[in-house]
């Protein structure tokens, strides 16, 4: 190996891997051989350099036209299945929303996968920036590598600062401005979904905020999703000002008042429903134009659309517990003093619900809202109360 690499092209002699040394006059065949060797080496170096350039620039400069540089190498190789299903090396990319949604909506038309696909859960964090409860999540994820992926949407100018060993390291997707109750909130949720869908292994997609916590260990969460016949999108027909009262006649005929639904923003959908959400162009403009505050579009768009498209796939309830007992537009927040074992007991015992057409006691996998000051209490409670 070494001797071949160390050949100098204008040397009289060259050494083969076998160790034999040949003395040569420069015959046409020999010149041809040297020429071929030279060409292969130049191509090799060219490919390596351009791939490294792409890797480097892909991270440092997202606007670089990588396709132009990549072409010679791609044409060289014969595609394996692996090259289509391999997750992207980085969550960064140069696509705008239109390009991203279009790409993410690609879906196979054959139900069976021709390889051993291990389905993953995509945890999608919709945040302003920091993730103060990250240490709790780190503990939840530990030891479950290969069964989850993480995506974080922040305000566009926020730069996350996780260490290399963190599960959140370099999981921040290209993000844009989000305002509470506006359509750009749904845009961010679709952006999170679309980014997560670029990894073909992701099968279940969960939307979370920085104030959410997991109530059970990872294996419980995973099997709850895997064994469910339905996706956990909250969706109900609510009479009154906060429900049907937010319906606008401009939505007809695509959405009638009977089809109008409300549900929690914090959803879980499977890949089939995720494709419907990112591919939608019919309902999108109806909601963008006719559901503006006091119509909070993030509570209506996905529940209504999916109830029209695929009601038989919906559990119609959310997996995220929220304390609305105090009334008002915002739920209760728990902090240092009131994040207690009693609270966790209250959450897990408070309800019965339907799971695969049976009545069960395990209804919530996540809960909100928890303030940064709750972190210490949560870390102490986790081993007994949550099992991680
Ligand atoms: C990022 O984290 C490192 C160490 O974890 C710290 O030294 C640095 O100050 C942080 N930078 C910002 C902008 O928070
Ligand atoms: C997760 O929790 C369940 C239910 O509490 C328990 O049976 C299981 O052993 C736990 N799994 C791990 C890996 O801790
Ligand atoms: C959810 O609601 C839809 C109608 O809105 C219904 O068709 C579907 O059966 C419900 N799902 C479950 C699991 O009950
Ligand atoms: C919990 O305590 C915090 C202060 O740490 C307070 O702001 C909050 O309102 C309390 N929440 C509840 C539900 O009592």
Report the top-level CATH class of the largest domain.
Answer: Alpha Beta
Low-pLDDT stretches are 1-25, 49-70
DSSP helical segment count: 13
What's the end-to-end separation, in Å? 50 Å
Number of strands: 13
Ions and ligands? 2-acetamido-2-deoxy-beta-D-glucopyranose
Under CATH, the topology of the largest domain can be stated as Spore Coat Polysaccharide Biosynthesis Protein SpsA, Chain A
Q: What is the 3D shape?
A: globular
Record the strand order, biggest sheet: 4-3-5-8
Compute the average pLDDT. Answer: 86
What letter string, H or E per element, gives the SSE order? Answer: HEEHHHHEHEHEEHEEHHHEEHEEEH
CATH architecture of the largest domain: Alpha-Beta Complex
Which percent bin holds the helix content? Answer: 25-40%
- Residue share in β-strands: 5-15%
Structural Rg: 27 Å
Describe the structure.
Keywords: Glycoprotein, Glycosyltransferase, Membrane, Transferase, Transmembrane, Transmembrane helix. It is a single-pass type II membrane protein. The protein is an alpha/beta fold and 388 residues long. Helix content is 36%, strand content 13%. The chain contains 13 helices and 13 strands. Helix 2 crosses helix 3 (66-76), helix 5 (97-104) packs across helix 7 (183-197) and helix 7 (183-197) crosses helix 9 (271-279). It is globular. The model is unreliable at 1-25 and 49-70 (pLDDT under 50). The chain binds 2-acetamido-2-deoxy-beta-D-glucopyranose (NAG) (4 copies). One 2-acetamido-2-deoxy-beta-D-glucopyranose is lined by residues 217, 219-220, 387.
């Amino acid at each position: 190996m070494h001797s071949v690499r160390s050949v100098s092209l204008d040397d009289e002699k060259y050494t083969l891997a076998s160790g034999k040394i040949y003395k040569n006059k420069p015959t046409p065949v020999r010149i041809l051989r040297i020429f071929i060797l030279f060409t292969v080496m130049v191509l090799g170096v060219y490919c390596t350099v351009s791939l490294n350039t792409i890797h480097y620039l892909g991270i440092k400069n997202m606007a670089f036209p990588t396709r132009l540089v990549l072409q010679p190498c791609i044409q060289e190789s014969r595609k394996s299945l692996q090259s289509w299903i391999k997750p992207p090396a980085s969550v960064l990319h140069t696509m705008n929303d239109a390009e991203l949604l279009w790409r993410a909506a690609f879906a196979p038309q054959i139900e069976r996968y021709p390889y051993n696909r291990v389905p993953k859960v995509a945890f999608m964090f919709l945040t302003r920036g920091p993730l103060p409860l990250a240490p709790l999540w780190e503990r939840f994820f530990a030891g479950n590598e290969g069964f989850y992926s993480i995506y974080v949407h922040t305000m566009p100018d926020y730069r996350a600062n996780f260490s290399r060993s963190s599960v959140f390291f370099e999981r921040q997707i290209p993000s844009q401005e989000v305002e509470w109750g506006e359509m750009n909130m749904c845009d961010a949720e679709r952006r999170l979904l679309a980014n997560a869908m670029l990894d073909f292994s992701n099968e279940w997609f969960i939307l979370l905020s920085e104030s959410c916590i997991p109530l059970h260990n990872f294996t419980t969460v995973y099997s709850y999703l895997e064994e469910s016949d339905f996706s956990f999108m909250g969706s109900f027909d609510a009479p009154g000002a906060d429900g049907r009262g937010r319906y606008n006649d401009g939505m007809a005929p695509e959405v009638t008042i009977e089809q109008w639904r409300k549900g929690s923003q914090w959803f879980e959908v499977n890949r089939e429903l995720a494709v419907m959400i990112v591919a939608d162009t019919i309902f999108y403009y109806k909601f963008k134009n006719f559901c503006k505050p006091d119509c909070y579009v993030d509570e209506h768009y996905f529940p209504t659309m999916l109830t029209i498209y695929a009601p038989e796939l919906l559990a119609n309830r959310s997996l995220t517990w929220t304390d609305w007992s105090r009334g008002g537009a915002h739920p209760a927040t728990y902090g240092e003093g009131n994040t207690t074992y009693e609270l966790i007991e209250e959450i897990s015992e408070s309800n019965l619900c339907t799971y695969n057409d049976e009545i069960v006691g395990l209804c919530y996998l996540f809960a909100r809202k928890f303030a940064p000051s709750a972190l210490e209490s949560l870390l102490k409670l986790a081993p007994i109360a949550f099992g991680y």
